[in-house]
Amino acid sequence: MNFIKVDSYEKMSNLAADIIADVVKNKSNAVLGLATGSSPLGTYARLIEKYNRGELDFKEVTSVNLDEYVGLDGSNDQSYRYFMNKNLFQYININIEKTFVPNGCVEDLDAEGESYDKMIEDLGGTDIQLLGIGLDGHIGFNEPDEFFTKETHVVKLDESTIEANSRFFQSKDEVPKQAITMGMYSIMQAKKVLLIANGKNKKEIVEKAFFGPITPMVPASILQLHKDVTVIYSEN
Ligand code: GLP
User: Fold this and answer.
1) Which of 138, 195, 231 to mutate to test the pocket of ligand 1 (most atoms within 8 A of CB)?
2) Burial letters for 208-235: b for 16+ Cβ neighbours within 10 Å, e otherwise?
3) How many Å lie between the centroid of ligand 1 and the Cα of residue 227?
4) Beta carbons of 143 and 161 less than 8 angstroms apart
5) For residue 106, with 0-12 CB atoms within 10 Å meaning exposed, 13-18 middle and 19 or more buried, which class applies?
6) What ligand 1 atom has the least distance to the C-alpha of 140?
7) Other C-beta atoms lying within 10 Å of the C-beta of residue 129
8) Which element (helix H / strand E) includes 100?
9) Pairing relation of β-strands 99-100 and 62-65?
10) Residues with Cβ within 6 A of ligand 1?
11) CA–centroid distance, residue 32 to ligand 1 (Å)
């Protein structure tokens, strides 16, 4: 594992964007596993700058996102599809038809999970998976549990996750109680994993996840088993 500590969100974002940019430069049809949350916002802003400077071309790139809230469609400004369009896709030349986010609005969510995994498999997996980490150690929306879940699946969000994510909603009651998330198989098959975390409040969970025992009670700890993982942590 490559654990990099930096002292600012900006440095974290610059480094993360450089790593993703290298993947795209080396493979024009790269498959990018993308994440939402406040952690990757700076990374996306740097990628947009690189694109604007003509350093990057996303024309042949495909993206697959980790997760989506159940019940929110892409027109809802709290949905993760909306987040991706707003914070990245609208500014770059990625083909929107090749940007995938699980659909949390279909009736048969199990079938959606199955076809999402098959789609990732058919793409040959992701070349890089960008991840944030929740305060309880979740990646995507894989919450602490007694076991790791392999497939893309529906999860009931933990109270602490609902609380943490309520900052993006008008009130806590508006936060969906369920989400659909990529499981550990699709995350772990990424050729490279890049996890970014910032803030003093993430320090303890980052230490647990990367220097503690591998346990489904700290879902991100499974990444210790991945052969190419970079963690960038900024205390500020
Ligand atoms: C959400 C997302 C995760 C993300 C986490 C941390 O719950 N499902 O993918 O990593 O929040 O978010 P933030 O980066 O805002 O701390």
Assistant:
1) 138
2) bbbeeeeebebbbbbbeebeebbbbbbe
3) 23
4) yes
5) middle
6) 9
7) 29
8) strand 99-100
9) parallel
10) 35-39, 66-67, 132-134, 140-141, 161, 165
11) 17
Phi, psi of 183 (to 5 degrees): -90, -175
Which amino acid is residue 128, in one-letter code?
I
Closest CA to 159 of 139, 134, 180: 134
Tens place of pLDDT per residue across the chain (236 aa)? 999 999 999 999 999 999 999 999 999 999 999 999 999 999 999 999 999 999 999 999 999 999 999 999 999 999 999 999 999 999 999 999 999 999 999 999 999 999 999 999 999 999 999 999 999 999 999 999 999 999 999 999 999 999 999 999 999 999 999 999 999 999 999 999 999 999 999 999 999 999 999 999 999 999 999 999 999 999 99
